[in-house]
């Protein structure tokens, strides 16, 4: 089900009829190159996009109006994510070329930007490889960053000091993806081979308290492009980069496969909808 942020008691069950009836509401053609990431604000009709033309664009999705455009010319922009303010975003560099180790932390810095003043409020340095994704807690100002340097870092928007580091096996080839649940108590990390690991945010140094593998992705060398918890924390959606780019809906506690969507067609593994809140 999709959960409405505006009405916490409003749900839309995701079934075949709903998925087949989805159509385009607005079309935005302002980007001159690929849009590499986008994010909807949690309560207002706002959409922010990052594209390979180094542009950040802010839209009102209700009216279809482009509200503003900003540029990050030096290092580009990707993994754009709203904070809990409609005027602020966090983002990572698009720079992926090899750089001297002494410069790596400056190149792969995460930036906290005010759209209102078009200035950077804070820089988060620590990663020495390209950042693969960002995940903001829905409860407070903490967020996760995952990187090709095989680390997942925990940050707080209020300070540039890293709050914690999880080091993944160096043999892993795919970019890790991390996401935090809506309570801010658990986070998941996914990499190649269809494996997803669950950690306690308060004691991640003790290692994963649970793990499971998606059988259809066991031979995948690429990992995942997206990972999300449902609003109620009972489900995880995982988007594969391998093959047809399948979307898996999994039980968050045991990894049980509930649904698989491939090119818009789903395979049901249990009767009923994909229950719970939307990611």
Portion of residues in beta strands equals 35-45%
Strand order of the largest sheet: 19-20-21-22-23
Main beta-sheet strand count, sense and barrel state: 5 strands, antiparallel
Radius of gyration: 18 Å
CATH-scheme architecture of the domain at 1-24 and 168-279:
Beta Barrel
The number of helical elements comes to 2
Mean pLDDT: 85
Number of strands: 23
Overall morphology: globular
Distance between the termini: 9 Å
Low-pLDDT runs: 1-6, 265-279
A few lines on this structure:
WD repeats lie at residues 28-69, 124-165. This protein has helices at residues 16-21, 101-107; strands spanning 2-3, 11-12, 35-40, 46-51, 55-60, 65-71, 78-82, 88-92, 110-114, 119-124, 131-136, 142-147, 151-156, 159-167, 177-180, 186-190, 195-200, 210-213, 224-229, 235-240, 247-251, 257-262, 265-268.
Explain this structure.
This protein has 279 residues and is mostly beta strands. It has a domain at 1-24 and 168-279: Beta Barrel (Thrombin, subunit H). Helix content is 5%, strand content 44%. It contains two helices and 23 strands. The protein has a five-stranded antiparallel β-sheet, with no helix packed on it. A four-stranded antiparallel β-sheet has the order 3-4-5-6, with no helix packed on it. The chain has a four-stranded antiparallel β-sheet with strand order 7-8-9-10, with no helix packed on it. The longest helix is centred in the middle third of the chain and has 7 residues, at 101-107. It is globular and about 45 Å long. WD repeats lie at residues 28-69, 124-165. GO terms for molecular function: chromatin binding. It is found in: Nucleus.
């Amino acid at each position: 089900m999709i959960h409405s942020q505006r009405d916490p008691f409003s749900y839309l069950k995701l079934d075949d009829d709903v998925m087949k009836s989805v159509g385009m509401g607005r079309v935005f053609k302002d980007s001159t190159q690929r849009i590499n990431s986008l994010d909807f604000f949690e309560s207002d009709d706002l959409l922010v996009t990052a594209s390979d033309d180094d542009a950040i664009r802010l839209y009102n999705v209700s009216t279809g109006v482009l509200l503003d455009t900003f540029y990050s010319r030096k290092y580009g922009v990707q993994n754009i994510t709203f904070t809990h303010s409609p005027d602020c975003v966090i983002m990572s560099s698009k720079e992926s070329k090899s750089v001297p180790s002494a410069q790596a932390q400056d190149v792969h810095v995460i930036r906290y930007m005010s759209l209102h003043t078009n200035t950077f409020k804070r820089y988060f340095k620590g990663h020495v490889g390209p950042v693969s994704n960002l995940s903001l807690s829905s409860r407070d100002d903490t967020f996760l960053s995952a990187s090709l340097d095989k680390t997942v870092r925990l940050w707080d928007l209020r300070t540039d000091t890293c709050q914690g580091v999880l080091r993944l096996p160096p043999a892993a080839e795919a970019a890790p993806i991390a996401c935090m649940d809506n309570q801010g108590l658990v986070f998941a990390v996914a990499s190649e081979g269809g494996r997803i690991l669950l950690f306690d945010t308060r004691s991640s140094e003790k290692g994963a308290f649970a793990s499971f593998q998606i059988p259809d992705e066991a031979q995948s060398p690429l990992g995942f492009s997206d990972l999300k918890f449902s609003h109620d924390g009972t489900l995880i959606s995982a988007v594969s980069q391998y093959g047809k780019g399948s979307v898996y809906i999994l039980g968050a506690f045991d990894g049980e496969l509930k649904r698989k969507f491939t090119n818009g067609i789903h395979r049901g593994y249990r009767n009923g909808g994909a229950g719970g809140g939307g990611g």
